[in-house]
Amino acid sequence: MNEDQIKGKAKDVGGKIQEKVGEAVGNRQAQREGVSNQAEGKVQEKVGDAKDIVKGNR
C-alpha cells in the first residue's frame, strides 16, 4: 500500500463514522460532510491504485 491508499482509506472510514454520528444526533450537515469525506477518500484510494499500477506494483 502506498501513502495515497492509506490516507484515502482513513478518510473513507472517518467519513463513515462522521455520517453515522450525524445520523445519531440528527445533524444533517455532519452527515453530508461524512458522505463527502467518503467520496474524497475513495478517489484518493483510486489515485493510489493508479500509482501502484504505473510503478508496476500490481
TrEMBL record:
Report residue spans for region: Disordered.
1-58
Top-level lineage group: Bacteria
Span of domain CsbD-like: 4-55
- Organism of provenance: Massilia hydrophila
- Organism phylogeny: Bacteria, Pseudomonadati, Pseudomonadota, Betaproteobacteria, Burkholderiales
What is this protein's name? CsbD family protein
Query: Which InterPro entries does this chain map to?
Result: CsbD (IPR008462), YjbJ_sf (IPR036629)
List, as start-end ranges, the regions of compositional bias called Basic and acidic residues: 1-22, 42-58
Q: Gene3D superfamilies given for it?
A: YjbJ
Recorded family membership = Belongs to the UPF0337 (CsbD) family.
